[in-house]
Design brief:
The protein is α/β, with parallel strands linked by helices. The protein has one domain (14-240): Vaccinia Virus protein VP39 (Rossmann fold, 3-Layer(aba) Sandwich), CATH 3.40.50. It is built from eight helices and nine strands. It has helices at residues 15-26, 31-35, 56-68, 87-95, 108-120, 163-166, 183-193, 206-219, and strands at residues 37-40, 43-46, 77-81, 100-105, 127-131, 143-148, 194-203, 222-228, 234-240. The strands form two sheets. A seven-stranded mixed β-sheet has the order 5-4-3-6-7-9-8, sandwiched between helices. Strand 8 and strand 9 form a beta hairpin. Helix 3 packs parallel to helix 4 and helix 7 packs parallel to helix 8.
């Protein structure tokens, strides 16, 4: 079939660019890294090697927040922990126009990318991207909501992941021996950072579901719900701190 390059896809790639893209894919480089962009809930998000790639499964995290949290008239104070590209914070900021959000990540590359994405949507006055470790920077009872897609894959399972996934940053995937090496301190710190009755929305996967729920209840959280993704797989844990 003939025809010209669709203008909606941007400038047509030249032969050298196409050859480079094909060579990268032959090496199992993730397509999102090759294209430099991915859509998250219909929002174009820039992505680069060294930064975790947003996935459709994680869209369930935002849709779940929207189910339980209405568009309040007062300011909603939110922390996005392990922000990566900043896609969660950006999606929440666009949906909740009065929200104030802190997007936190330990990776300098993630912080750089999240800041670029935040600036792309002119959200710098409401979304602050910071380099930090979990919730350590927050004073007690200063947040209404924490949203997170933490690493939850047990270390022993990492070699079984597809080659493309293994090229993503290990620190975004590796949850330690039992999958909870990041989740456990995050749950503990969120108890202090959240207001009484505050919300915690966390992406998990079935292999660690029961351990995470048991740990959360032991810390004193109330289990509100376990929401499924589009594949009908348990994906988002909804918790509240004691009132």
């Amino acid at each position: 079939m003939g025809g010209s390059w669709p203008p909606t896809l941007g400038p047509a790639p030249n032969t050298s660019q196409l050859r480079g893209a094909l060579q990268a894919r032959q090496k199992r480089v993730p397509l999102a890294y090759v294209l430099g962009e991915v859509e998250f809930l219909g929002i174009p998000i820039r992505v680069r090697p060294g930064v975790f790639i947003p996935r459709v499964d994680t869209e369930t995290l935002i849709l779940t927040v929207q189910t339980y949290i209405t568009k309040r008239t007062r300011v909603l104070r939110v922390a996005d922990i392990g922000t990566g590209t900043g896609c969660l914070a950006i999606a929440l900021a666009l949906h909740y126009p009065r929200a104030r959000l802190w997007a936190i990540d330990r990776s300098p590359m993630a912080v750089r990318t999240a800041r670029e994405n935040t600036a792309r949507y002119r959200l710098e006055s409401r979304v602050w991207v910071l380099r930090g470790d979990l919730l350590q920077a927050f004073r007690p009872h200063t947040l209404d909501l924490v949203v997170t897609n933490p690493p939850y894959i047990p270390t022993s399972h990492l070699p079984t992941l597809p080659p493309e996934v293994q090229q993503e940053p290990k620190e975004a995937l590796d949850g330690g021996p039992d999958g909870l090496s990041v989740i456990r301190p995050l749950l503990q710190q969120a108890l202090d950072a959240l207001v009484p009755g505050g919300w915690l929305f966390m992406e998990i996967a079935p292999p660690v579901r029961d351990r995470v729920i048991h740990t959360a209840k032991r810390f004193g959280y109330r289990l509100v719900a376990m929401e499924k993704d589009l594949g009908w797989i348990d994906r988002v844990l909804v918790l509240r701190t004691p009132s």
